[in-house]
Amino acid sequence: MPYNEQRFLQTEFWAEFKCRHGWSSMYFNILPDGNLKKTEHFSPDANSQNSLTLLIRKIKGFNLAYIPMAPEYSDEGREKYLARVSELAKKIKPLLPKRTLFLRFDIPVDFADLTERDSFAHDKINPSLGIKKSAVDIQPPDTVLLDITRSEEEILSSMKSKWRYNVRLAEKKDVKVSRHFAGEEGFEEAFNNFYSLFEQTSKRDGVSFHGKAYYMDLLEKGCPDDRGNPQITLYLAKHENDYLAGIITLFCPREAVYLYGASGNIKRNLMPAYLLQWTAIKDAKAAGCPVYDFYGCPPTEDQNHPMHGLFLFKTGFGGNLVHRPGSFDYKLSGLYPFYSFAEKLRAWWHKKALKKLNGN
To answer: What pLDDT digit, counting tens, does each position of 133-180 carry?
Structure first.
C-alpha cells in the first residue's frame, strides 16, 4: 500500500504536542549527499523521507534523543540499513545537547513473519556500528493494520462473523456513538465522562495512563481546522444515560490510528467497543485514510498472555498482524549501560511487580 505522507510520529504536529509535555524538538532535512540541514520546522522535500523529526527529553541532568519511526526502510537489507542508521547518528551527534546518553530510533520495518522480525531485532549487530537493541521499546512493536481503501462491504466481510454480529447487536440494542471535538458545545462534559471511563479501566486492568491534561491538550491541538494538522476525535458509546466506552483516534493523510481506549464496568454485553471501532473505521475511510492502525497488541495468539483478549479483539476486525523490530540505540556516553539497566528494571517493575502487588 503506497504511503505518500509522513507517519504521524514524524509530524511537526506531534512534536509540538510532545514539547508541551516535557520534550523539545529538532528538525532536519537529509540532503542528497547524505549531509544534514537543520531547519526551524518540519519542512520536507518532495520526498518526505528526506526529513526527520527528533525529540529530546531531559532527565536528571542528562538528555535522551529519540527519532520515532524513522528513517524509512528501503529494502536494502538489515546490515546496510543499520549502517545507514549509524551514519545518520554520527552526523546528528555533534548537533545534540551536551550530556546526551544515546540516540534512539524506532525502526519502521514491517514484517508479517514473527521469526523474520525477531531475526532482524536480535541477530548480532556489527559492533563497529555502535548500535544495539534497546532494553525497552517505545512504540508498540506489534500491531494490526486494516486496509480501508476497500468498500465498507468488503471491510465488513473480512471481519470475523462474530465481530459483524457484535457491531449489529450494539446497533440493535440502541447503543449510540457520538463524536466530540475540543471547543464544541458539550465537549468538556464528554471529555469528563471519557476520563471517568479511563479511571475505571485503570483500576480494573491495572494499567497506568497520562494525566487528564495530557489528553485534553491532545484533543485541543487536534481540532479540525484549515492548517492540515492531524484530526483528533473523541468517540463515546452511550446506552440510555450510561456511558459505556470511549476511544481517541488520529486521522492524517498517511494513516488513521486508534490511540487510546477506555471502557466501563456495566452493560459490556451490549458490545459498545465493536460499534466504536466500526464508527471510527468508517470515518477514517471517509477522511481518505488508507489504513487503520489498531496500534499495539500481543505478537501471537497466546492464551496465557495477559492481553490475549486484546489480541482477539483487534485481529478480529480483519486486519493484518504486523511485527516491527522495535527500538535501537546509538550509544553516545559511557553512562549508557547504567541507564539501560535502570530502564529495564523500571519496565519490570511496572509490567510485573506492580501488577502483582495490586493483585492483577
So the answer is: 998 999 999 999 999 999 999 999 999 999 999 999 999 999 999 999
What angle (nearest 5°) sits at the alpha carbon of residue 173, between those of residues 171 and 178?
A: 50
| Dist. CA 68–CA 359, nearest whole Å | 34
> Please, which residues have CB within 8 angstroms of residue 337's CB and are 6 or more apart in sequence?
none
Torsion of CA 350, 352, 354, 357, to 10 degrees: 180
pLDDT, tens digit, 9 for 90 and up, residues 90-127: 999 999 999 999 999 999 999 999 999 999 999 999 99
Q: Say if CB 54 and CB 293 are below 8 A apart.
A: no
* Residue 220: partners with Cβ closer than 8 Å, 6 or more residues away: 182, 183
For the chain, how far is it from start to end, CA to CA, in angstroms? 40
Q: b/e for 62-77, b at 16 or more Cβ within 10 A?
A: bbbbbbbbbbbbeeee
Distance separating alpha carbons of residues 287 and 2, to the nearest angstrom: 17
Q: Note the pTM of the prediction, 2 decimals.
A: 0.93
Residue type, 77: G
